[in-house]
Design brief:
heterodimer, A: five-stranded parallel sheet, five-stranded parallel sheet, 16% strand, B: seven-stranded mixed sheet, 15% strand
Amino acid sequence: MAAQTLFEKIWESHVVRAEPDGTTLLYIDRQLVHEVTSPQAFEGLKLSGRRPRRPGATLAVPDHNVPTTDRTLGIADPLSAKQIQTLEENCRDFGITLFGMNDIRQGVVHVIGPEQGFTLPGTTIVCGDSHTSTHGAFGALAFGIGTSEVEHVLATQCLVQKRPKTMEIRVDGVLPALCSAKDVILAIIGKIGTAGGTGYVIEYTGSAIRALSMEGRMTLCNMSIEGGARAGMVAPDENTVAYIKGRPLAPKGDLFEQALQAWQQLKTDANATYDLIVTMRAEDIAPQVSWGTSPGMVTGIDQRVPDPRTITDENQRQATARALEYMGLIPNMPMTDIRIDTVFIGSCTNSRIEDLRLAANLAKGKHVAKTVHAMVVPGSGLVKQQAEQEGLDRLFKEAGFEWREAGCSMCLAMNADVLQPGERCASTSNRNFEGRQGAGGRTHLVSPAMAVAAAIEGHFVDIRHWA
Amino acid sequence: MQAFTTMTGLVAPLDRVNVDTDQIIPKQFLKTIKRTGLREGLFYDWRKQKDGSQEPAFFLNQPRFQGATILLTRDNFGCGSSREHAPWALLDQGFRCVIASSFADIFYNNCFQNGMLPVVLKADEVLAMMKDVLATPGYQLTVDLGNQTVTTPDGTHSRFEIDPFRKDGLYRGLDAIGLTLQHEATIAAYETRRKAEAPWLFADLQS
């Protein structure tokens, strides 16, 4: 058999049938569902009189709209409440497992899938959410879909797909101290651009990637979509297996052993080829901060805000000038001079236990600047519980951070956690689009370590010379 | 789903690159449980001034672009969030076709699910059309899916590429789920085979 990439192995094991033009009916092993992109899909099923083909292959959770404050008070916004209630009704009507808002297992959909062992190597995973790429950290083919396709998967357990191209992004070497997976992926997007991955599935390889924890790999794969790629993946290894073993929905006993044998085959063959290869050196990656209104508008903390006058490409010059105007930044100012009002630590990118451990320990014994409002939103109820068992909540609170309930929160500000116009935020989330965290809000994407340091100093600092 | 064959329509210009779906429809409009009525949220933050009044400079607020059915824009249109509310909002506003020099994958795919045609033309063709739209009141284009062409008022044809399977589904207005369900036996056979190979994938959740 010809040498294959990891992606090709997973793709081929899920082909149900193929059209003459290569369009493929692809089998979907797992679907995750949340309240925002599913109501119209369930409505479609009802209108057409269809039932889910395998309701037990789907797991649902409300995350986008949920309050991160005291939930015994209910949801103040009637529209948010209605959307969550609709999810509950649909799950009941169609026999789908739901972790409700007050279930300890509730959390951001891309945190709970792996946490529960629902996310497994070699599987195809979809969700009506572009950050489904997160699950690729386990060597799964995982990608975001629209609501019509959510309905399609519910009804048929399949999706019609055109085979994407393959891209290898190889990062070798050792990351500088306190540089993390977030800095790696931001640097990658800065290099390939926000459309660089369009039409591709990315496989991340190299010694710096192998050295990442599962949490780090999730952060990395999570933002593949910000580089235009619907999916990103890392081949499973002993770290992957150790993470999965014993989780509630992971296979047990003989089934686990059988799965393990299959997972060991999930790697790119030595002679396999990719359509495109990008390489980077880990040593060259500085802590990253975005300065603009697209994740590709990013630079190292030791750099300056770009000057549109020095950009020769007209499109790029205009886009840069427009972004700087929106962001209220002056060309050539050092990144470390940017003062912030708000810090958000959370989102499907950076809200897992490892992120919180690092952030809490950096905050230990220090205090958030008087001018800054800082909040920590754990990725799930279980992450929150574990953090509290480890005393991380106390470290955060003593340092002046708010400690919240789990959810998407200020990453997209669908709940009450919203930036005011002009408010400037250091955020561990994934998108710095205009208005993403609130109309007129200004978002700078950073790692958890960089967010903590900015909270304490009131402006961005180079974490390598800070802690 | 509504079929798409040919259309001639007024063109509206959105002369920007990297327009993300958060701009096409901001989050506060995603709390609906319906597919309809989303035009109110379309490009909301660009359409409105800070005090909530209409922004007169934005193209959708200009009288000459009222009734436009074709949106002309630039690179990487529809990047970011997978929200299908983006094509729903465009459709609700009356756009059946979006022409761009490139699209983000998920948005491109979502259009086909809703009887909308996303057309990719070369960057220089888009730039030339953009110039003409701005210079010519009432500028119309004809989009012919069957022949895969966009025709300008002076009769110039630009050809675009599209997957045959997608083209056929849109041209005939086929129900995508119904089409897949015609292969139910093949899906069942796949499941039987796969269950023997990888039984751990079939330990389904019990609600």
